[in-house]
Each structure stands twice: as structure tokens, then as C-alpha cells.
Amino acid sequence: MDPTYFNEIVKVLPTPVIILRPENKDFIIVSVNEAYLKLGNFNRETILGKSFFQAFPDDPYFRIPEWQESFARVMKDKQPDRVPTKQYINFLNGSIKVRFFDVENVPVLNQHNEVEYIVRTVNDITAIVEAQELSQAAHDRLVSKEKFLSETQRLGRSGGWEVDLIFNKVTWSDVQREIHEVEPDYEPKMINLIDFFKEEADRTMMTALVNDAIHHGSMFDIELKIMTAKGKERLVRTTGKSELREGKCIRIYGVTQDITERRLTELELTESRNRFQSLL
User: Fold this and answer.
1) Fewest CB atoms within 10 A around its CB: which of 47, 159, 247, 259?
2) Contact 278, 266 (CB under 8 A)
3) Torsional class of 80: left (φ above 0), alpha (ψ -120 to 50), beta (otherwise)
4) Which residues, other chains included, contact 10 with Cβ-Cβ below 8 Å and sequence gap of 6+?
């Protein structure tokens, strides 16, 4: 396979992508797009042709055991493998920048059904993590709901929500309303909250997660499809956490992020990979 073909595919994608070639239990960098280079101000010439684990010698992020474990699963199962969210600390020009990444490693198989390349994509979810931390900190400091919603709204395309189980009241931020394409003065009701979820299976899943949060204090983080008030299908990532008082859940709160465009980008990459394999 010619890795230059991958260059043509990935260089136009906004999603950070790096292409690796398995070689004697090592993983050699054969292609990388500009979005990936910008993650840590990397230099293309200094990392191409090097092992993934040696190309960034001064960066501990690239030496955590989860990467090797993920690559091993991809090689064994020949299926995409997503790694749980990891913190990335970037030291640049004397300053420190903390970000959070979701990483997925996707295999590209050759005509012998062997893994010939691994497509590694990175999704920066700093906004949603910061939104969660912000909401927790805001309530810890007993700030007003208005400030909580306002701060959450500022984080791009992530809407804040709260279900008050004492007063049976649901609160949505402005961005939450925008994601669901309802009117600015729309007041959600507990009785019809799950109606926005498109599939019956999704409604059942969300109900189970909320019940588990109420009775066991569990957190949840799930991707589901919704149908907006204007009849548009969107894919959202919803995270939630319960607040307990004397062992009793008094409210559930969290963040909803519209990830429709991100998923479309991932699908485009998968389709490109499939088209490439069809040429073999």
C-alpha cells in the first residue's frame, strides 16, 4: 500500500489523524496531518519514520501503557479500539496547557486480512470536561443557577441541564435548547424528557441510566440519537451525575454535547479507508 494515498485523505480533515504501520511489534509513523501536528506543536520531519513510542521522547503522554494495550487489541481483534479520555499536558513557551483527548485506533486490513496500517484519530473534548468540572465547582460554591448555565453555555456547543428531584423541576441552558431546536422560552417537563430520543432502545437506555444514577449515585456518559423539535436527527453525547444528600438523590445534572459533525468526519474517514481497501 502507498501511504501517500492516506496523506491525500487525512490532510484535509479537521480531525487530528496519524497513520501508523505495525512493524515487528512496533508502530512506525508513516503519515500525519496538520491538525495532529498542532496538538503539541510537533514537527513533521522529526516524527515521520519513527516509532510512535520514540517519536516524542520528552512527552510522557505518549508513554502511558494504555496506548500499547490499545494497539495490541487492534492487532488481535482487527477492530477499532477507543481509549478512555486521557489528560494531555502541553508545555509550550514556558506555559502549561491542559487538554483532554478521546483517542480511537482503527485498523486498515490488507488482502490477507492482516493489519497493515492503524489510523489513529484524536478528539479534543476539553470543552465538555471543563463544563463538567465547572458545573461541579459552581454547585460546590453554591453559585446561582443562572451563573452555572451561563458558564456552561460558553463552552462551544455543550448545553447544561439539571433535574431537581425535590421540586420536580427541569432546567436547561440556552445551548441545550439550541441543540434540541426548541423555542428560547421552552420549559422542559420531566414527563416528556425522553421523547426527544429517536429510538425506543435509546429511550429505554436513558431511563435505565437515570434510574441507576438516582438509586446508586452512578455517573453516566453515553452517545444517543435525538430528534429535534424541527425534525432533525442529531447525535449527542450526554454525561450526567447525581447529587446525594444523606444517601438520597436530590438532583441529577450534566452536559449534552452535539457531536453530529464530529461523527460525520469519522464516517468520512471510515468510508475513505473502505474505498482504499476496495482497491486492493
Assistant:
1) 247
2) no
3) beta
4) 17, 19, 31, 32, 33, 119, 269
